[in-house]
Design a protein that fits this description.
mainly alpha; 471 residues; 4 strands; 19 helices; 4-stranded antiparallel β-sheet
């Protein structure tokens, strides 16, 4: 083949395209026709010539002329499974000697079937197609990158440079918030031309704050910042363990809450309901007994409404109903059970509030770090190597905050259920549904409270690990 141009002329179906595809297959192990197929099956097994005798190896071989005029014979063999083998001067190799350069260059093969995708398309698509064939994609990508750098430099900046710029922007905002540093801010906004002046002003301000000057000014500033941080913290954020007295109080509150969810409490409410039902029967029996006494005085009229007894069996009817109630009635004597249950319910409602207030106070200092304004002030004071410890604090506090809503909502449901039961008992109208609702709400609250308490003590170790960073 000629170094600059080789023309192959032949009638249709004489193999002109096959020669081009053979060269493409030899160099790259695949052809653009197969690569651009619409489906896997479209050109399946198309590398094998249908007229080639079966059983013979299928290969493409070419002799290449080196710059020093020596020759190099390369051969690519198609294996039965579709894979290929490469041989150079008869020796099998993993890659061509010029493989690295080949991968960096374009794939300048335009087979007949691909012409329509280059010529019968919109102008821009045609341009992009030829650019791809000629290997101009990298040039196009570079052109876009340069254009983007000129028009939107912030998008094209390397991550490290973008991080530095973000740090400078944050520094400018922080400086602008301090009136005495306004000259430094104005100088900083002038950009690179005023950088030396900005640095001198910043060093002068630092020397005034610390009373020190020289090469160790940053060390002096860090020491001063730590002193101020101690004053702001007034100690370190922590989880406070309950003292023995408070622990005893908390256990008392917990016991009052748990009591209204026990089987004994439920049975007592059931006993009281039975007592109230029998009391109503007793009142009905007494009422009927009074009616019988009036019938003895006037057997012709109803003792309840005064109408005449036309059937003549009124006495028998009232007496039979009275006797039936007396047989059924075995009302126990009135006891202090009602007062006891009412008191237990009132104690449980109060304990639901007091218990949570006591437990929540354990983590009040820790939860303070979620306050937006305080969090910003603390972060402004922290050095970079301390920010990780503070992130642990905020993570722990956020986790507990998410569980707080569950504890508080279940506590409210339990209080409402206890209040409803208390009102029903006072009105002598005890209902099984209300007691069941109370037990369910109380158990849900105790489960949420137990989960929250467990999380608190699991967080203690994490918080304690951060303490040296704030000491």
């Amino acid at each position: 083949m000629h170094p600059r141009l080789t023309l192959i002329s032949a009638p249709n179906s004489y193999g002109k395209t096959s020669v081009a595809e053979a060269l493409e297959f030899l160099l790259f192990g695949v052809t653009s026709k197969v690569q651009g197929a619409h489906s896997v099956e479209e050109y399946k097994d198309s590398y094998r010539n249908r007229h080639f005798p079966a059983g013979r190896p299928i290969f493409v071989e070419a002799k290449c002329l080196r710059d020093d005029r020596t020759t190099l014979t390369i051969r690519r063999i198609l294996k039965p499974d579709g894979a290929t083998r490469c041989l150079v001067d008869g020796t099998e190799v993993d890659d061509w000697p010029f493989g690295a350069q080949l991968r960096l260059s374009a794939t300048p093969f335009v087979i007949q079937h691909a012409l329509k995708e280059l010529l019968l398309v919109a102008p821009n698509d045609r341009f992009l197609g030829f650019a791809r064939i000629l290997g101009l994609n990298d040039v196009d990508a570079m052109h876009k990158a340069i254009t983007s750098l000129c028009t939107k430099p912030e998008v094209s900046l390397p991550p490290k440079a973008a991080k530095y710029l973000e740090g400078l922007s944050q520094l400018e905002v922080q400086l602008a918030a301090i009136a005495s540093l306004r000259p430094v801010v104005l100088s900083l906004r002038k950009g690179e031309v005023a950088f030396d002046d900005t640095l001198q002003q910043a060093r002068a301000r630092a020397a005034a704050l610390t009373g020190e000057a020289g090469a160790d000014i940053l060390v002096a500033l860090a020491r001063k910042r730590d002193e101020i941080a101690k004053l702001v913290y007034e100690g370190d954020p922590r989880v406070v363990r309950l003292t023995p007295d408070k622990l005893a109080t908390q256990q008392k509150h917990q016991g009052a809450i748990e009591l209204v969810a026990t089987a004994i409490f439920v049975q007592q409410v059931a006993d009281l309901a039975q007592h109230d039902a029998l009391s109503r029967l007793q009142q009905q029996a007494d009422f009927l007994k009074t009616g019988l006494q009036y019938l003895l005085e006037d057997p012709t009229h109803c003792p309840l409404c005064g109408l005449p007894d036309e059937g003549g069996n009124l006495d028998e009817h009232i007496r039979s109903r009275h006797d039936a109630i007396v047989i059924e009635l075995k009302a126990p004597a009135e006891s202090d059970l009602r007062k006891t249950l009412i008191k237990q319910l009132a104690n449980a409602r109060a304990a639901l509030i007091s218990n949570w207030t006591l437990l929540r106070a354990q983590v009040a200092d820790l939860m303070d770090v979620l306050d937006g304004d305080k969090q910003k002030r603390i972060r402004d004071l922290l050095a970079q190597d301390e920010s990780g410890a503070f992130d642990v604090l905020t993570s722990v506090a956020t986790s507990l905050r998410n569980q707080e809503s569950e504890v508080e909502s279940t506590a409210e449901l339990a209080r409402n259920a206890a209040e409803e039961c208390e009102l029903r008992i006072k009105a002598k109208d005890e209902q099984v549904a209300h007691v069941e609702a109370l037990v369910s709400a109380t158990q849900s609250h105790l489960a949420a409270l137990n989960s929250w308490t467990q999380s608190v003590y699991e967080c203690v170790d994490q918080v304690l690990l951060t303490r040296p960073a704030f000491s």
